[in-house]
Amino acid sequence: MKRILLLILLLLLLLLGLTAFGLFTAMRDPVVRRMTVHMRNWPADTPPMRVVLISDLHVAGPETPPSRLARIVAQVNALKPDLVLIAGDIEQERTVTTRVYGAAEATAPLAGLRARYGVLAVLGNHDYSGRNKSDLPPWLERQGITVLRNEAVRRGALTIAGADDPYHGKYHGKALDHAARALPGPTVVLSHTPDIAPSLPARYPLVLAGHTHCGQIAPPLIGPITASSNYGLRYACGLIREPGRDVLVTAGIGTSGVPLRIGAVPDFWLLTFDGVAR
User: Fold this and answer.
1) Fewer CB near the last or first residue (10 Å), C or N of the chain?
2) What pLDDT is attached to residue 68?
3) What is this structure's pTM?
4) Which fold has domain 2-275?
5) Would you say 192 and 88 are in contact if contact means Cβ atoms under 8 Å apart?
6) Cβ distance 141 to 147 under 8 Å?
7) Summary mean pLDDT of the chain
8) Alpha carbon of 177 to those of 9, 150, 172, 200, 222: distances in Å?
């Protein structure tokens, strides 16, 4: 009987330790990952652009209160980006939390972002309510952030085509393609989920996305158990090279479901866009 009780105690201590480690990882400063993107149609004599991709803020307690987001904003600003792209899921909806923040509090720290060409954002599945509506766009716009909903804009040498959320039926591929074709220059697609990549026309060589949290729970030697994707683990994490197209998936900042991360540290990407070396 004593052995059984000891075993139960050890298991409880192990569970407590894993929970503490997972919470610590979820609350840590994000890793900055870097990549240079050579665009074949980059305008001649145009200097490189530094673009930060950040996603899945999931502003909620205990791991991502507005104060943590404010620190991350300062971390982004220190990189002196030309453009900041936010790939959705700024708000949070979950039951395992110490506090849920409304749109005003969740977006307030984002007003501190500084970039030469501004900040662009798309909406994610957590940014919509059960009524298929989102209260985020006006609050984001108050913070100086442009929200793209199947729209495209030119910023510097880049055209950014922003997809709305497919999980709530808001993504319209034809509208996105029409908007992007109306603008010149190399084009990248910004989407909350990477799942839209296979349906895109071949003219889009790069998709920037989040949503998967790189699995969020990715045990050593096993890796991500799930990626919240219709394509299984195909777009689980990082740079995925496919014929004619690359898909870049960031691990994001916050969490979903439970406020824990194991084996999938928070991150965001600093991308340097330039032309093909000659």
Assistant:
1) C
2) 97
3) 0.94
4) Purple Acid Phosphatase; chain A, domain 2 (3.60.21)
5) yes
6) yes
7) 93
8) 58, 8, 9, 8, 38
